[in-house]
Amino acid sequence: MPEWLNDAVFYQIYPQSFYDSNGDGIGDINGIIQKLDYVKGLGCNAIWLNPVYDSPFMDGGYDVCNYKQVAKRYGTNDDLVNLFNEAHKKRIKILLDLVPGHTSDTHEWFLNAKKAAENEYSNRYIFTKSVWDAPPQYRMMCGICERNGNYLVNYFSSQPALNYGFYEITHPEWQLPPDHPDCLATVEAIKDIMRFWLDKGADGFRVDMADSLVKNDEEKIATAKIWRGIREMLDKEYPEAAMVAEWCNPQCAINNAGFHMDFYLDHYGNGYSRLFRYGEWGNEAVFNSNGKGSIKDFADEYLPAYECSKNNGYISFMTNNHDMPRITAYLDKQAIKLVNAFIFTMPGVPFLYYGDEIGMKYQGDLVSKEGGFSRTGSRTPMQWTSGKNLGFSTSDEIYLPVDKSTDAPTVENQINDPDSVYKVITDMIALRHKYDDLKGNGELEFIYEDGKVPFAYRRGNLIMYFNPLAAQSEMQTAYSGDVIYKLGDSTFADGKIIMSPQSFVMINIK
User: How far is Cα 56 from Cα 40, in angstroms, rounded to an integer?
Assistant: First the structure.
């Protein structure tokens, strides 16, 4: 296990929307290099970079046509290597985004697989034996190849699924087992891509749809076996490299598949959703000030997952990501401050989505761009200054529009504001680095009275108390100590803590 993960705080960068260094309206790698000091100033010591590979951008770069080539819009391979080098000088790690489940339908592998004549890539993807064979339980593209067959896609029609085999074979005439040589060749091709970028300085990978490899694998037995083999390769050849899974099942992703981290994702109804987004636009979330949320419902799901995986890896909370609406669509500013106090004091390895530190808004009325659809409003350009395009670009035409409201938050107007989300996030990250009890692993004990709020949790000698309610509230407590940080007012008296509306306090009982 790479030791650096225990004190890691990641910053997620959507490259086309971060900073445009050459004035073409699209963010680029050199723009990221120019903003590394900003990332460092947040307290973040690692970056997750969304895909920068060559792509037709039918799905924001998650449709890769060349895994070993940086897309021209972002720069060159040399620029990416330069980013690795400059980041490392500042002690910042870089994880690339790995897309192992599918490619673009313009990838050279797929162009060969579509051919009628059999070749070494014929089984790199999943084709039926006949164009008339399109089983309804599978998402198939029909009748568009010279090859007499239909192919399976992972989601969009432009994303043919790579062939890792089928754990349960329902159509033996065209389905292969995971140990078939051609399926094993797909695994080796992914390892080759990983080695290519690790050798150039990458520090690991965030793995897109990590649980999607082997089909008909409901328990993910064969898929986990593939990732364990990849983890063995990393442990042997690149022991400091790390992988984080888009899986949301720590028992499977961390314990069985060998990932170092697993995202705690926004699957509706799960613990993450119940904290921040549950109900219609978050009206039953724990951090909604109306008090309808249940911390017990979160804890009942999260704590068993934490206990079973904490010795093998990290559960990763995120402030948001490129696939879900920014939390500004759900909660008010004070609630968002409490959300971030929670995320950055919980165990695991936290991820901060670009722009969340300044409270960027979700722009829900945008026309879909590059397969974004409802996600487009969370992928708008970073807002740096009050200048043209809010400092993102000097171009007259930019990738997506910036926030045009008069109160649009920017780094310029938030960074020195004592009432800003920026201040809370940077304060929390600084405390996380300072206190060992707040780092990635360690003790965690939840404290609540009836499953509702307010609530608290203990990590070593530190206790975090939260009152998300819009009214003053109190709870029984056996603890008191030195106040390390607070939002709002709190008073300890007669075995109780009395907290002002939407407040937080961290104490040290040592």
Answer: 32
pLDDT, tens only, 257-303: 999 999 998 776 788 999 999 999 899 999 999 999 999 999 999 99
Q: For residue 235, what pLDDT is reported?
A: 98
Quick check: pTM over 0.70? Answer: yes
Closest CA to 158 of 274, 268, 57, 34: 57
Give 437's contacts (C-beta < 8 A, 6+ positions apart). 443, 459, 460, 461, 462
Percent of the chain exceeding pLDDT 90 equals 96
Rounded to an integer, what distance in angstroms lies between the CA atom of residue 389 and that of residue 397?
9
Alpha helices (H) in 277-414, listed in sequence order? 295-309, 333-343, 411-414
Residues pairing with 263 in the sheet: 316
- Alpha-helical regions (H) of 345-441: 411-414, 421-434
Residue type present at position 287: F
224 neighbors 257 (Cβ within 8 angstroms): yes
User: β-strand 53-54 against 66-70: which pairing, if any?
Assistant: antiparallel
Residue 464 · residue 473 · CB < 8 Å:
no
Alpha carbons 242 and 2: distance in angstroms, whole number: 7
- Selection from 60, 58, 54, 56 nearest residue 17 by Cα: 60
62, amino acid identity: Y
Mean pLDDT of 192-216: 98
Residue 471 clears pLDDT 80, i.e. is over it: yes
Beta bridge partners of 97: 206
Question: What does the mean pLDDT of the chain come to?
Answer: 97
- Strand pairing category for 482-487 and 503-508: antiparallel
**Which residues fall within 8 angstroms of residue 493, CB to CB, at 6 or more apart?**
none
- DSSP annotation of 166: B
- Structural domains in the chain plus CATH codes: 3-100+183-436 (3.20.20.80), 102-163 (3.90.400.10), 443-508 (2.60.40.1180)
